[in-house]
Prior knowledge:
Blueprint lengths: L23 H19 L1 H9 L8 E7 L5 H12 L3 E7 L3 H14 L8 E4 L3 H6 L4 E7 L10 H11 E10 L3 H11 L8 H11 L3 H7 L4 E6 L3 E7 L10
Parallel strand pairs: 1-2, 1-4, 2-3, 4-5
Antiparallel strand pairs: 5-7, 6-7
Helix pairs in contact: 7-8
Amino acid sequence: MTPRPLTSRRADLVEWMDRSDCDPVKLHNTYRYFPVINRLISGWGAVYRRFIRPQLRTGQHYHLLDVGSGGGDITTNIHAWAAGDGFRLAVTGVDPDPRAHEYALAGLRSRNKDASPATLTFLQADTGQLRREGKTFDFVTCNHVLHHLDNEEIPGFLDDLAALAVRRVVCSDIERSAIGYVLFSVATWPLFPNSFIRADGLISIRKSFRVDELRAILPPGWRVIRQFPFRLLLIFDNHHAVNRENI
């Protein structure tokens, strides 16, 4: 059943996979199912084509940071899409969770048994650490990170992202919706066994924002765009380097 009401964000809830003592088998299966969920729901192919690819130029070198890379599927896909389009885009995925980091590294090794591509890497780190080290990247992306944060934490996190990006930041997350909650509950009920996909997905919806809530706490320079289905994109453009004709 749909929790009533869904009018208030439940930032106090904790997803099962974020617990240090969660079932390791279910956690592994959750990472394993992420590519399916992200392909069906997150829409990063469309995000790449609209907000990243138009900023790339043949023959130039670029570097993208994917924050909260989890199991690494979106990080890997962005790298592959850019390479397939003939662009030189190095991609680094970062996640502070050692379990996610190890899973992403294992996946990278299994896909590239002879040698991992030098332009695709994973680090166990957070945005504050990278910022203190003076790192910068042409693009910064993140998927399903914002709803994990308290309202008070979000301005500082977005400030880190903006400081790390030379060109553009693109954050994607869930838009809280009763309809979306019901559809996700029904669609995932018989699927993704022995994992946290369904339970954590429903918690994530309850923890996520509505567009007006997010706009109310955004620092200057950020904007929110709705994306189908039940998605919110946060965009920040740094300096004059962005081609605004493709926004």
